[in-house]
Amino acid sequence: MKTQRDSAVEDFAPALITWQKRHGRHDLPWQQTRDPYAVWLSEIMLQQTQVTAVIPYYRRFLERFPTIRALAAAPADDVLALWSGLGYYSRARNLHRAAQIMVAEHSGQFPQTLDAVMALPGIGRSTAAAILVFAFGQRGAILDGNVKRVLSRVRGIAGYPGESAVTAQLWAEAELLLAKTGLRAYTQGLMDLGATVCARRNPRCAECPVQKLCVAYKSGRTAELPMPKPRKVLPQRRTQMLILQRAGEVMLEKRPSSGIWGGLWCFPETDADADAAAVCAQRYSATVELRETLPVIAHGFTHYHLDILPQPALVKSWPLRAAEPGLIWLSIEEAGEAAIPTPVRSILAQLARSRGS
Ligand code: SF4
Q1: Residues 122-152: pLDDT tens digits?
Q2: Is the CB of 148 under 6 A from ligand 1?
Q3: pTM of the model
Q4: CA 184 to ligand 1 centroid distance, Å
Q5: Which domain holds residue 124?
Q6: Longest CA span, the chain
Q7: Is residue 189 part of a domain?
Q8: 105 a catalytic residue
Q9: Is residue 228 part of a domain?
Q10: Are 143 and 70 in a shared domain?
Q11: Which of 63, 233, 272, 275 is the residue whose CA sits 20 to 30 A from 184?
Q12: How many CB atoms lie within 10 A of CB 325?
C-alpha cells in the first residue's frame, strides 16, 4: 500500500507535466531554442526581471551578439550599453566574463556538466541546472525563488527559505520530487506554476494541478508558507539623561565627535540605575534636588533599542564657571534650536509641556 507521502512524491511530477502541456507557457522566445547560449542569456535576464521586460532585451542582445564568441569579443561598454535599463549590471559583466572563459577554456562551447557550468561567473546551482535541462535535456533540480515558494507550500516546510538549513531541506525536496522523464516540461511547469498560479499573495489554488498534494492547501496554511525572513531581535539598552535646570535654563553637553550622536548637544548621560544626585556631585561638584522622572523615551538604532530615562534635577549649587568648555546653558526654546538628537528634542518637548501645565 502506498503511504500518503509516497503518493505525493510520485504524483507531483506527472500532475505538473500534464498541466504544463495544457496550461503552461509555450511561446516565450527562449522556449523556441535549444541553443545553450540563448537559454543561458534568458535565464540570467529573468533572474531579477519580469518576462515582459526581458523579451525586447533578449532579442536585441542576441541580434547584436548571436554567439558566445561574438559576446566574448565585444568591448565591455557595448555589452553594458545593451543591458542599459535592465538593471543589476553585474549580470551583464558576468555574462561577458563567462563568454570569455568559455572561449579560453571550452573552445567557445557551453560546458555540459553541472560543476563546469557552476564554475562560470554569475551562475548558481539552480540556473546551471535550468540551462542543462532546457538546452541538453539533462536531469537536474532547480530551486529559484518561485520554486522555493511552491515547494515550501506543497511539502509544508516551515522556516524562512533563505536560511541555509531550510534551503538544504528544499533542495532535498526538489531532488525527491524531480521527474524521471519529461524534464523540460517538468522544469518549465515548476517555473510556470510559481509565476502564474502559486503567487506569493492569494495563490490560485482552485486552478492548481497539485492542489490534492499540497500540504499548505490541505492545512489552510497557504498564507503562512513560506515563512518571511525573521526579524532580528535587537538588544535592549537603558540609559539615564540628567536634565539639569537652573534659572529657567537646561544644561547640554557636547558629545565626542565619534560614537552615537557624535558632535551633537545632548543631556548628560549616566547609567540607568545610577543615583543622579551623586553623579552630579561627583561630575560637576553640584548639589541638585531631583524631581519626578519624565516618561521613558524609546529610541531605535540599527543595532539596538535604547530606553532613555529622563531625570530632571533642580540645581541648588553650581561651583563650575558658567561657560565651562563643552557645557552650555540654554532656555528650552534655545536648546530646541541647537544641534540636538531626536530624543533630546522629545525630552525638551516634554519639559515645555510640563512647564505649560
Ligand atoms: Fe500553491 Fe495553492 Fe497549488 Fe498549494 S494548492 S501549490 S498553495 S497554488
Answers
A1: 999 999 999 999 999 999 999 999 999 999 9
A2: no
A3: 0.70
A4: 21
A5: 4-218
A6: 92
A7: yes
A8: no
A9: no
A10: yes
A11: 63
A12: 7
